[in-house]
Structures are given as C-alpha cells and as structure tokens.
Inverse folding.
C-alpha cells in the first residue's frame, strides 16, 4: 500500500511525494481511513511509529476540502477561527507536532498556531488574533489564553489529544476536562496514547462517541529490531561501566534514562569527568536550555543525553543507536516506551540495562509483562559481588510475615 491509495487532497499527495514518503506505517494504514470517514478514534501507538502524520494528514485534508476552505478564509475582512485543535503534554512534543504539520502541508497555506508556556503571552495572543486554522497547544497555556479571550474554540471541528496516557500521568486531567467544556458537541475527536490501559479507556469514554479502537502494536511487545542486553553490575560501578562501553565501543547517539532529575544531574557530572560529552534533559531546565540540548544532540555535538521518562516524551529523534536504562522503571510499560526509541524504521538499535541487585524484583515483573526471558550477562572487569542480596522492603517484609502467619495457622489447624 502507498499514500497514493488514500483519498487525500492532491497537494498533500504531491508534498508526500516530494518528501519521499511513499509507504504508510501500520498506524497510518489503520487510522487514516477511519479518520477520513469521520469516525472518532482511540489509537495506541508509540513515539516513532508515524502517529503524528496519522492524525495530521486527514486533518489537513479536511481543512483543504471543506466548503469554506482555508484559502477562502484568507480573504480580506475574514477573521478565521480555529477548526482544528491538537493538545500535547509537553512543549517539545507540541513543537514537533507543529513542525510536522508545516512539513506535511508544504505550501497549502493552512495557518497553524503554536501555544505553550515559557514564552511571551503577548506574541501568542497576536498569533491567535491574526487568525489560525489549527492550534497546537499544551493544555495549561491554552486555558490561560482562553480566559484572556485571546481566541475561542466554538468552531473546532477536529480535536486531537496526543500522548493521552502521559497527559494523565502529568496531572492534566482537570485541564483537559475544562477544555472539553469549551468545545462544540458536534466534532470529531481523536485520542492517541502509547498505552490503552483501563485509565485511558475510562477517561476516553467521557468524550469519544463509538470510537474506532486501533492498536498498531502489541502493548507488551518490544521491537524485533532492538537488541536487548542486560548487564549485572553493582550499583556503584554502573557509571564506570557505562563510560567504558561508550568509549571502547565508540557509541554515538545515546539516550540514557534515569529515574529522577537529581540522578540525571549527578550522572552527567560523573560522566563529564570521564570526558564524555553529554547533558541532562529534564523539567527543571529552562525551555531554551532544553531546546539547545536537543539541537546539540541531533547535530552530534553531544554524544549522549540523560533524561527522565516524562521529559523524554518530548524527544523525537529519527535515528537513535542506543538506549540505556540506568535502572529498570517501576512501570513495565515504560520499559517498552524507552527502548522503542531505538530500532525504528527497520534500523538496528540496542537497548542496554544496567541491573543491580536492587532491581531484580523489577526484572521478574518485567519478564512476566513481556512474557519472555531477558538474558543477563557479566562484563569482564565489572562482575557483580555475588555476596550482595536484594534489600528487604517494608512491603516485602510485611508480605513475608503474613505468609509465615498463614503457614503457622495452617499447621495449627492440621494438629487439631
């Protein structure tokens, strides 16, 4: 199947050909026909699967082909009100969606507005008041501008929530519900999420009407193009092993995951002492700093970046060679999201996990979630101390005491 098989506007097909986009991805193949047919959609797709184009192309097509077209709305004395609204959880992701819209439409003339916090409100007000056809926004800043009457949403026909699971993780539920109250009841709504768990399903039922449910991947599955390696190593030696791997194997384009912002900063400081050129990437950094870090990483000035799960949702890099887990995430689905950053579009990628004894209980849960065993290995010179045992947490200890009590009660009942 090719993009030419979709009934898209000729200008969009010409632009796709110019971009040398010929074959749609799985999510695009499944979602585009349903969206063009006017259905609400609830779709599961991870970053890097082409999901942005999956909702952007039909939206651009509809705006170009509806009776009062975008071209007509650009006539003098016509104040254009937005017809499309796309919400993203982070500024970085909103920027990427906005850039993709501009790239996909080419010279079609559809006006897109980009709204997010951390920059001048007045500039964004002026942008909206000049008239836009599509708003790409983060929820908080858009609500602020609506309260200031910078724009209205009463003519929105197409509403998209991108990364819905991360929206809920970041506490945007109330903001989303507040924005929904401002939208017309007659509209098409599209919700895209990396995972379709019970929480996302329950939330979507409040505003989706008989949606087409699309899962472009097995939610518990990792890509076959990703080689997964787990090194058993003592926690104090993790940084040294990572530096050794990067220097000896000459790694480039490395995305390193850390659980906390504080851990990310500490790791960057340690690795810089070993002459590794890298930077942290998390929410405590200013918008301008994060943009510069991402630009330097993409250009090759930085060999690696150390990110938290939340911040990494805003990172979209076409070719990423290595993903490193300094420790396993507490949520098993986050492991799938993390390593899904590499091995895209058929390219080979490597996912490295540095496993200390503390994380062994998480590995058991992960293997159950993935329904497969993950091979573990030692790296020469960094072998773990086998005398160490996993620490007993309060929860584990409590469970063990309960089990002992049950066994004692059973033994006593048998004696009776």
């Amino acid at each position: 199947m090719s993009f030419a098989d979709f009934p898209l506007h000729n200008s969009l097909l010409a632009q796709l050909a110019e971009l040398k986009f010929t074959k749609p991805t799985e999510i695009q193949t499944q979602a585009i026909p349903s969206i063009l047919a006017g259905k609400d959609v609830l779709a599961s797709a991870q970053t890097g699967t082409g999901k942005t184009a999956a909702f952007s192309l039909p939206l651009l097509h509809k705006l170009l082909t509806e009776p009062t077209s975008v071209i007509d709305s650009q006539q003098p004395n016509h104040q254009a009100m937005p017809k499309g609204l796309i919400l993203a959880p982070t500024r970085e992701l909103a920027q990427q969606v906005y850039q993709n819209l501009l790239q996909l439409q080419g010279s079609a003339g559809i006006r897109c507005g980009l709204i997010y916090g951390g920059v001048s409100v007045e500039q964004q007000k002026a942008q909206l008041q000049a008239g836009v056809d599509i708003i790409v926004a983060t929820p908080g800043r858009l609500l602020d501008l609506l309260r200031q009457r910078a724009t209205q949403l009463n003519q929105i026909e197409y509403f998209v929530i991108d990364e819905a699971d991360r929206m809920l993780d970041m506490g945007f539920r109330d903001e989303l519900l507040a924005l929904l109250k401002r939208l017309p009841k007659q509209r098409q709504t599209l919700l895209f999420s990396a995972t379709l768990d019970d929480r996302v399903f329950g939330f979507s039922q409040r505003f989706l009407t008989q949606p087409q449910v699309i899962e472009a991947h097995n939610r518990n599955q990792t890509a076959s193009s990703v080689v997964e390696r787990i090194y058993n190593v003592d926690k104090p030696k993790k940084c040294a092993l990572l530096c050794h791997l990067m220097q000896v194997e000459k790694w480039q384009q490395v995305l390193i995951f850390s659980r906390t912002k504080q851990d990310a900063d500490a790791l960057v400081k340690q690795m810089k002492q070993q002459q590794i050129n890298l930077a942290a990437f998390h929410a405590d950094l200013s918008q301008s700093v994060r943009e510069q870090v991402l630009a330097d990483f993409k250009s090759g000035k930085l060999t690696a970046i150390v990110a938290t799960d939340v911040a990494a949702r805003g990172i979209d890099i076409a070719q990423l060679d290595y993903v490193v887990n300094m420790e396993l995430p507490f949520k098993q689905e986050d492991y799938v999201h993390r390593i899904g950053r590499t091995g895209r579009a058929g390219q080979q990628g490597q996912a490295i996990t540095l496993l200390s004894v503390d994380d062994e209980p998480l590995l058991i849960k992960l293997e159950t979630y993935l329904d497969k065993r993950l091979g573990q290995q030692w790296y020469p010179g960094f072998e773990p101390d086998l005398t160490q045992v996993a620490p007993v947490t309060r929860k584990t200890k409590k469970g063990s005491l309960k089990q002992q009590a049950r066994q004692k009660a059973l033994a006593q009942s048998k004696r009776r």
Summary: The mean pLDDT is 86. The chain has two domains: 3-215, 226-377. The first helix runs from residue 10 to 18.
